Amino acid sequence: MSSVVVGAGAVSIEDVVAVARHNTTITLDPGALAGVTASRAVIDGLASDPNPHYGISTGFGALATTFIESDRRAQLQASLVRSHAAGSGPEVEREVIRALMLLRLSTLMTGRTGVRPVVAETYAAVINAGITPVVREYGSLGCSGDLAPLSHCALATLGEGDVRNAEGVLMPAAEALASAGITPLKLEEKEGLALINGTDGMLGMLALAITDLKMLMTTVDISAAMSIEGLMGTDKVFAADLHALRPQVGQGQSATNLRNILADSPIVHSHSGPEDGRVQDAYSLRCSPQVHGGARDTIAHAELVAGRELASAVDNPVLTVDGRVESNGNFHGAPVAYVLDFLAIVAADVASMSERRTDRFLDRARNQGLPPFLAHEVGVDSGLMIAQYTAAGLVSEMKRLAVPASADSIPSSAMQEDHVSMGWHAGRKLRKAVDAFSRVVAIELMTAARGIDLREPLKPSPVTGAVIAELRSNGVAGPGADRFLSPEIEAAAELTLSGRIAAVAQSASTTPLI
Known about the structure:
Layout: E1 3-6, H1 13-22, E2 25-28, H2 30-47, H3 73-84, E3 88-91, H4 94-108, H5 117-128, E4 132-133, E5 136-138, H6 147-157, E6 162-164, E7 170-172, H7 173-180, H8 191-196, H9 200-230, H10 240-244, H11 249-262, H12 266-269, H13 283-286, H14 288-310, E8 318-319, E9 325-326, H15 334-362, H16 385-401, H17 423-453, H18 462-472, H19 486-497, H20 500-508
Parallel strand pairs: 1-2
Antiparallel strand pairs: 3-5, 4-6, 6-7, 8-9
Helix pairs in contact: 1-4, 1-9, 3-6, 4-5, 4-9, 9-11, 9-14, 9-15, 9-17, 11-14, 14-15, 15-16, 15-17, 16-17, 17-19, 18-20
């Protein structure tokens, strides 16, 4: 992607990921900038009105009834940003901050916030220069938007606070702007409020998580298929006509993946005849399309909500299409917070099923003739015993992360803001859950790969064979005496979260994986 064009319409999830994660530059649509200019004229007209207008000639929040004289309004806007940049804790990741800034810019370009074009142009310049404001972990309640995170970003465009430059060096914002040839903003009426009143932080985290989870759902179908091979399971339960009896979309997609991944698998075919006396596999093998599919459907719902939010102009007050400036509650993060929490729940459940498949490999009572713990010399070697502990610990942590943040609320701003979404917190814990999920799947991949190797001379399918080869060529060794396992787990996790495992499997498959 050469450039993301930001105009009056919605940016896509793909646009967010391109700018946030891959440093794609931004171009502002000239027609949309003309609309920004036109909407600013409305604000300028209201600024001279002796009657108070919220955010233009009044204070904020619980101070909304306080009229501010015209000669103090520039100070009002700057003071708003400075006072609200009150975050605390460790720095938030660069990609989250870039996503947040892009989404705030997208709202500014709708022409519904009443800022001057220079404000949008400055945001685009800061993003394109690779300047990342320092945003702290704690500070947002997800109502009145992600106030503290957005304020830290706005503060940097004023030439205040700290940032990291394109090389990641920490420095004062004024120095970074000067080096990039960017003139610091001097805010006018309404502009400070327009820069901090949105769901952009939680929405940015949602867009990134959806992207990662869609890829990980393909990957966990791959790891499940490898477990089915290594545990001598059957692929008959993934037949299309069986899944047509329950037409859940995601379930059908996962079942299709499993059929395609296991196609032409000598291991599966070796015991597919009538001489195989087992009636049915354990749930963690047999029901994987149902669980993986339910997660897929949840991700699809989250993507629908994210698409609506990406098309939104979230500000308060907002400039309507017919020129009114109206207070509203669109900044409340509930719709985004709910799906962020929902995704953490399904990620925990899918990871739990993955860990159960890993555990089956290590128990000689359930692993169909493999050595205990897949150890090289039983009794001397522990094999992958403690790798399963790691997966189990990650799953338990994910269960804690699945407790909804959005079920909580705490009043703020002298009870004016008496119900909040906690959407920022939902996004923060989902990021941890996605990372943990990738590691649980990685441990299943390395365990299943070892189990399959121990089935020689039987061979895996072309798809799973390609995945095993990729693991082996990237530091995840095959069966053998005990060795330092942590580097292998980290290597497998990197291949998983980067999307490399899914890409290799897709290249080896004769049909598209979903």
